[in-house]
Amino acid sequence: MNGWLLTLPVAVPLFAAAVLVFTPNSVALQRLLSIAANGAVLVLGAVLLARTYDGSVISENLSGWTQVGIPIMFAGDAFSALMLCVTALLVMVCLGFAFATGDAAHRLFAPMALVMAAGVYGAYLTADLFNLFVFVEVMLAPSYVLLVLAGGRKRVAAGRLYLTVSLLASTIFLAGIGLVYGLAGTVNLGQLAGSASGSPAMAVAGSLILIAMGVKAALVPVHGWLPRAYLHAAPAVAALFSGLLTKVGVYVIFRLYAVMYEGDPQYAWVVMLAALLSMVVGVLGAVGEKTMRAILAFHMISQIGYMIIGPALFTTVALAAGIFYIIHHVLVKAALLICAGAVEVTYGTGRLDRLGGLVNRAPWLAAAFMVAALSLAGMPPMSGFIAKLAIVRAAILEAHYLAAVVAVLVGLLTLLSMIKIWNGAFWGHNGEATWDEEGERSSATTRVIKPSLVAPAVVLASFSLIFGIGAEPLLAATTVAAEGLTDITAYVTAVTMR
């Protein structure tokens, strides 16, 4: 794989977005180009994973500014390849769901989704801090548009909150990059290797970037924006956001803590505290919620905490478990949000006291929800069981018994929340009514959820079964990715081209 091919995951979606903007509005063309562009990225990600499976790193410098410390460096290893693959798959499925719900009816929806995806792919492949900032902003700008595109007072209010928090985080991010450049004279990640572990000033500068990523990942105590924004987003947008926005924050935390801090144990307690608080606060926040989507949104905060245990422990076993958890969660959370979205689109509400009996009227949706929900709670044989077991095992191996106990208890509370949704929406009375946007009962007619709304959830939930029953290949790939984080020699060599 030539180094310049690393730019294609960014270039292809951007080109497709430009074509859609400047051609006549055609749903067929939008569906074809947007899904084909991300399908191409999925293939490129698979090729990159095959080329880096031996632990090697592929890099490419696209600028001649290396002497002034501002290269445009791309680098791909097993970690970034895995993230490319799972993200591209998620975007394809969520776009299919968006066309089924009608969320993609606006001619700007598909182009904005493509630009956002290009920003995410770029964030996974860049190897310098300034371009990471650029790609994060490329990701965020269309996300504001997608959030408010469908209109409505609540969505606009959610968009304002999301925009304000994102701008604050971006300002902190940029300040951190400025400090790093002022202290080190470079933003190249390879040249910054180990800089924060040997210099308190660099540690402070790097911490600003990590705080900004903590906001974007919705870690406690900077998590409040997520449930408010996701609750009012269009169903397809919420599913799309769940696998993209927070995961970029988590990815950058993994990467920076490995490269700049080299997993310095003196900062591990801060990372572990954020992880455990996120797990507990997220799962408790879901207890009092009454809608499917609100419960799922709070659980997203809780699940981010599981992932962050990886860098907190910073062993190969823990990092591999954390990366496995990221991949599992991207697919399962989107499947659950698509289930909730299919219900909302059909019946006009996600309130549990207004639903019921879906197991009879939508058995495939019920099956997809059950698989994804049990996986989220960590039940065998789904991928969530493997992910949680790996996290608990990593914690016990490092004698961090508190993390292991919290992980198990939060898993049990997650199971109770999933049972609550199941009993309210899928079991019980028939719930034969539809509801308008003001929450008023508008019809007593029983509606059937369209197969096109159910299929995306079934596809994503099936991957949880596949990665649960046949977990070994993915576990092996995540171990390779984790080894590249605990030993950054190959990454530094490739990025600095020495």
Automatic annotation (TrEMBL):
GO cellular component: plasma membrane
Main location, first listed in the record: membrane
Domain NADH:quinone oxidoreductase/Mrp antiporter transmembrane: from-to ranges: 128-413
Alphabetized UniProt keyword annotations: Cell membrane, Membrane, Transmembrane, Transmembrane helix
GO terms for biological process, alphabetical: ATP synthesis coupled electron transport
Transmembrane residue ranges: 6-23, 35-53, 73-101, 108-124, 130-149, 161-181, 201-222, 229-254, 266-287, 308-328, 364-387, 399-419, 453-471
Keyword Transmembrane helix tagged: yes
Pfam families hit by this protein: Proton_antipo_M (PF00361)
Localization annotation: Cell membrane; Membrane
Keyword RNA-binding among UniProt keywords: no
Record membrane topology: Multi-pass membrane protein
InterPro entries: CPA3_Na-H_Antiporter_D, NADH_UbQ_OxRdtase, ND/Mrp_TM
Gene Ontology MF terms in the entry: NADH dehydrogenase (ubiquinone) activity
Superkingdom, natural source: Bacteria
Family listed: Belongs to the CPA3 antiporters (TC 2.A.63) subunit D family.
UniProt protein name: Monovalent cation/H+ antiporter subunit D family protein
Provenance organism: Natronosporangium hydrolyticum
